[in-house]
Amino acid sequence: KDAPHFITVEWNSRTLLPCVLAPRHIQRTRSLTCSFVDWSTMMPLSSGRSRSSSNLNDGDAETGKCTKRAHAIFLKLQRRIPFLKKAAEVALRVPPRWRYAFVLLWFVWKIVLTIALVFLFQKTVRTRGSAMTTNGGILPETMGGPTRVLYIITTLAEYNNGLRATVKDQDRLGEVLIPIMFDNINSMISPRFNLQVDVFLICGYELKEQREEYIRSRLPPGVGLQIWDDASPLGYEKHKSKGNQFVSLNTRALSRQHRYVIKDKIDYYDAFVVFEDDMRITGHHVQHFLEMSQELEKMRLRAPKITINDHVDDPQSMKFFGDMSRDQMDRLVPGFVRVEVLLNETEHGAQQHLDPIPLDYDFNDVLGGSGDQQEVHIDPSICCHVNMEPNIETPKTPKAEDVIIWETNVKAFTLRELPTSPTPRSKFDWAVVMLGPGKRLDQKKLIGGYWSGREGAFGKMDRPTGGPPDLIAQQGGWMATREQILRLNSGLCQGSFLPPFDEPVYYEDGQQSMNVEFWSGSYQFFTGVRGGCNMQRLISVHPDHFSKHLLYHVANNKQRQLKRERMLRADHLFGQFNTVRKQAIRAKLELESAQA
Length: 596
What we know:
The protein is 34% helix and 17% strand. A 5-stranded mixed beta sheet has the order 9-8-7-12-20, with helices on both faces. The chain has a 5-stranded mixed beta sheet with strand order 13-22-15-16-23. By secondary structure, it is α+β, with helices and mostly antiparallel strands. The N terminus is likely disordered.
């Protein structure tokens, strides 16, 4: 027949290369002569009707059966795929050297293709990393989808012990943590913010199976949950009377455990929201943090790599506008202030006497309105309008005057005009510079600002520095993008931000002398204590955004625990900030006029 003959022979457990006989060979002889080729060496073995060797187990009869089967299979394939006939004829016309060269080129092509694919993959990763560097690692449009957020909650006790003005034996898990956690989650994943959220719950106790099932049953679709219960680490403690050491649970170090979670998950999320179990964190807060971080990142990339001295040691000559160096911009992050809602102003009210900075709620110069525009106040719906189930005595829709601050006041702050943003009319022009950085940091890396007492409002009082507990405004947690965390861990902090926590900065893996506030309350993040990172928090004073820096402490216990004089209305602080902002603008104009 005209069809080529296709023979496959098994010899000595090696597959021999197929032999194809073109029709012209059949015309010359009725014998099916063929050169068998050893696949491993690509060298001819013999020619003839069959391969005769003692190594062929079943002799010529079996070879003939194999030949017929192979022939039948090839004919069937040829009828289905006519191209095989043409390919076989062309292959036989090609000299052996060219065939060997073709095989070699085929392997080289595969290697080159593999290298090209690896290169393209690495380029994609670098491009993604570049987009993170340019945008702070934060925007959905640069990531190709919703921003991925890991929401980490640390909780020490399932029931309140009655200390720090809490209700003894209150079901903290069921009446505080679970209601506020789901309120937070539902806000973040709402269509307005479209964040892709997973939850990691770190418990200092063993979570009962029924509790876990209840939590999982309430999770919205698409929200993942992991639980690390009984998570307090073991540590050595000295017994004061016996003088020896013994191993026990170190509940103080429970607040450190989220760092291990972050190190494990750093490649899978764009942002990390790490807070205590009684903090209300909404989509407003996360989105604003990401947007402000993006603006700051753009400014950081444009900042000159030179040394700029803001003269922070002299409040009267301290720089409060103009360029900032790259070293200064490296440390800028959006900040927050904890607030509570007054429950009973008769028993536990706000302070009666304000610091001598007038209240000013006129933002016409910012909003571009007419001179008769109404006053602008804080928006309590952002921080403090809750949708908790169950809700145990937590006000659902408090008013602006009910929101109070207890961990800071206007004396603690300076205001800074940020470098010109590439975005026209940036909403992050004037910002509040919060307390915290200072210790163990080069003074030339500190950021100056216009102090609220620069014009003598506080007499001869020195400007506060560092982290005094009643002025630092610790947040009860922190947020950071992945890029920010990587920068913290690669040189901005005195020690490592993520584990391992080694000497000489840390002792006993970070368990010794590190309190709860160091890890979870943001002291390490924003101060210069041993192991601190000296990050500089900023608060936008723009009326559209100031309220997004207020975080609700839903336990509402500080107003019962501390003195009334510490309870400052958040709206009053907002009005004082606006007064200082206008003072700073006038001072800037005077300085520029004098220099001209």
